Amino acid sequence: MALKIYPINLGNMALDASALVPFRDPGKQVTIPILGFLILGGEEPILVDTGSRSAEQYEPFGLPYEVTEQMTLPYHLAQHGLKLGDIRHIIHTHAHIDHVGMTDLFPMRTTVGISRRELEFAASGLMGPLMYTAADTKHLIDRLHTRGALRLFDVDGTFEEEVIPGVAVRLSGGHTPGSLSVLVETDAGIANISGDIAYSVQDQLIDPLLDQAAHEPTISANRAMSTLDEKKAIKRALSDSRFLLPSHDKPALIRGGKVVAVMHDAISNPLADVTRVDAYTPVAEV
Q1: Which are the contacts of 266, defined by CB distance < 8 A and separation ≥ 6?
Q2: Keyword Coiled coil: yes or no (predicted)?
Q3: Among 136, 100, 257, which residue's Cα sits nearest to residue 192?
Q4: pLDDT given for residue 130 in this prediction
Q5: 200-218 pLDDT, tens digit each
Q6: CA distance linking residue 91 with residue 74, whole number of Å
Q7: Which pTM was predicted?
Q8: How does DSSP classify residue 280?
Q9: Rg of the chain, C-alpha, whole Å
């Protein structure tokens, strides 16, 4: 059975447009989805990222956050006939507040995978409590001290680590020192679940706001790495992937290092299979 990937919307966050892409419409509020990804069809079900712990944790920072019943993990998993305990592996692209918040809902027999560099960075406090929360980081540490509950990836950019046949992780960097790309072998090519190396497919990749050189992506406004690190992370993802699956925007179809099509209904449809090339709309028609 071929591997399939389903985006799951775990919440919607509202924030200033320029907080995502530098100098983009400052003062204008935009709403972005908080996405996880369900990988099915392999030896065992895999979940990539688990969303945020609660809406209330954003209130001190003035960030409106919406979660409906249709955005909960149990609801999304039920659409595929699964329960929380059926997930064998969770992979975190990184450990920010909106990517690891509901990991503690899963039993300790679920193995959670994260880059060792990312766990170190989370505990360092360099990005503050909005990015890495005490509750989320402490839970990962609890898993570290529970046999089999945490897997630390030591990818350094020179090799990948396999999770199950057809699913591997590699260091992407760019957003945080330990950010991972999850690479999934599909019938149509490699799908790259890319985390937060890019927030906006349109404004960073299709029609970059700040750059005029050909094939030059615009960086994001929220990163712990250098401008060059992030550009390299984006370019690497575009160089060898058929599908680019960012955590806060619609899936993109890639050819020749460029976005050629997007899937518009994937975020609102829990049964949307992003590995279907015929479900994408060419950029020229958008």
Answers
A1: 7, 250, 251, 272, 274, 279
A2: no
A3: 257
A4: 85
A5: 999 999 999 888 898 899 9
A6: 18
A7: 0.96
A8: P
A9: 17
